[in-house]
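One chain given next:
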Amino acid sequence: MKKLICAITLLAWLPALASAAPPPTAPSPPRMLDAAELETALAKLDVLGSVLYIAAHPDDENTAAMAYFSKGRKYRTAYLSLTRGDGGQNLIGPEKGAEIGIIRTQELLAARRVDGAEQYFTRAIDFGYSKTAEETFEFWGKDNVLSDIVWVIRKFRPDVIITRFTAENAGGHGHHTASAILALEAFTAAADPNRFPGQLEEVAPWRAERLFWNAWRPGRQETAGLVGIDTGEYDPLLGRSYAEMAAQSRSNHKSQGFGSAPRRGRQVDYFELLAGTPARADLFDGIDTSWDQIPGGRDVGRALERILASFDPRHPAKSLPALLEIHARLGKLDDTRWVPLKKRELLEIIRSCAGLWLDAAANDYSAAAGDEIGVTTTVINRSDYPLTLRSIAFPGLDSGSAPGLPLANNEPRTIETKLRLPRDFPISQPFWLREAPGRGLFAIPDQDLIGPAENPPAIAARVGLEAGGELLEFTVPVVFRWTDRVDGELSRPFEIKPRVTVGVEDKVCIFPGPAPQRVKVRVTSQSNGVAGQVRLEGGGQWRVTPASVPFSLGGKYEEKEVVFEVSPPASPGEAVLTAEADVGGEILDRELVDIAYPHITRQVYFPPSRLKVVKLDVKTAGSRIGYIMGAGDEVADGLRSLGYDVTMLDDARLENADLSGFDAIVTGIRAYNTRDRLKYDQPRLLRYVENGGTLVVQYNVSRGLPVGGIGPYPLTLGQDRVCVETAPVAFLLPDHQLLNFPNRIVPDDFAGWVQERGLYFASRWDGKYEAVLSSHDPGEPGREGGLLFARCGKGVFIYTGYAWFRQLPDGVAGAYRIMANLVSAGKFRGR
């Protein structure tokens, strides 16, 4: 399938500008705190309490509770999501697997920037919907994920742990149930020095005070004995309630379509104690959250109270002398739990009180190992308090300079630095994707990288300032900034890339016959003056010509398109070819995937450049197909690879074009959920069927379905799915045309499927529909609503919940043969 190199480009309508600068991305944090946020941060500096919320997926967290604990009660708050959501669907683009995991990681981080909490993960891979905890543990390895949760607890050291689910209240999802079981076991295991003792070289056992379940909307009589919090409480300083913050936070889960309207007014969340000491009125009953818990900390707490009482929001710099005294006092306290964290919080407060602008901007948005880059570091003190710039260093690259420059009010100080990147400098690959994952876990050999959400900045500046006799050290990520004529100043993280990236145009190449096919490979220089040979390797019986092609790229970001001819073997089969560039003996075989959406920080990913080639025994009927894209999938490309002429039907074409010229029309996944105009076009599509057309509707969900019915006869969509990709498939009507024309379908056509059989099968349907297949997960009855066929007038209507959107991009041979039968259904002339 064709890889979408840039998932979304807001400058698509301005091609000249788009070629001159990278697409926009979200601004890079941290940003300057305004007066209300500063006062909130000061209050939080005086609170030493912590909450860890545990659940299974991005979106499982209670964002209202997170905002309440973080912004309202001022506790250090974090969400531990066991997975990154890699197995979910995508409502905003075509990304799947690792790429949707990257997006959902960044969506969680965007949510945390709203509700003020932190974000953590385990190594567990989201392998799609699971119906039991047992299946989930078998896939992940229970002790592996339990170890990760214990590690995060021991590092984070929460006073209170909250789980979103229990084994009895998990919404039917095996991952949810597993997360509840693991949270309960981890609560005890984290305190036991005999559990996972290898961790104790770096962390100590930790006993949280309590474990709660965030109970789901209990009835009035069920609230007895539960602890309640009002997340609808209004914060006049921030101008919003915590529930309103939650709506903004949750609306960052855009790939799942979770845009939320704020709820206003009283909103009580309830918590049931599962383990630990009893609590009657509050989750923190009896827990000391003051500085008194630290030897010598009482004076710090009293000083903070005085600072907060005298804080002047119009002149925050007046608090700097007292804040610097706090900084000096913290340096004398012997505490490893709270003091390092509070020092970091204090530095950000000092920075904002001084209006201190710290920026490290590179002269380009990326470089390759071995390159030289220029970085401009700018420091501006926007207060009257005397500050001195003492040092600028780039850890691991440059020992830095000690300019000793006084920083007068609002006078910029700019330092230019040239940095040479070592030849072995790591690329900006998400750390959990650096190595090939195992069956159920990401491979993360560095224990310290288990838990964090994302990579540290590729390059950072360490800026040292002297203030009131105190040395303050700030870490500033290096970014690239540019000015867009529409959106103004934009930025993106600085990236380290391979010297050459190699991209294959089609990730799967289908050979329905013996003819060879042309394969395009794009070689892109990420550094100046790169030359070598590009090859397509690993074919076995597949013949690739020529054996290699020379390339020479003088300028950075130059590209060359290379064409190979690939000839299939005589018999059906498949292979994986690797596109690689040989640059002076260095083999570079990674492509560049850019993920750019306006609600998240831009990301790059460098997967191995692979091409799956599949020789099929497949026949087709008809030639022209119309495709109505929904939430985003690659099925249309799969149909093209079978030789079909596929036309994408936007709203205008769908409403005005002559549909009779199409042999079949296919709707993409969730098309009826995401294309609002379809409710007006549905009568036209059904007339197309009546007049002899074939309409194939892929899965939709019943929630948010704008049409009364998606078929010509009554049909109700349900929640049934078959999660096990190897689940048996029964042929209910073995003589049916869908199983025999133009290809005879056999059980082997359901071999090699990935992730799942199907989802959102129909639950009820009119007798005019014929159920062709049945499948089921272990221990369940047959699910027959995954492939329904009906004749209407002269044409054919098909509803299918089978997961073609996963199988075709993965090159599953049998899925192509079955899909060919679906779109050929109108050409059948038998009985």
Q: What stands out?
A: The CA atoms of residues 456 and 477 lie 9 Å apart. The two ends are 36 Å apart (CA to CA). Residues 1-29 have pLDDT under 50 and may be disordered.
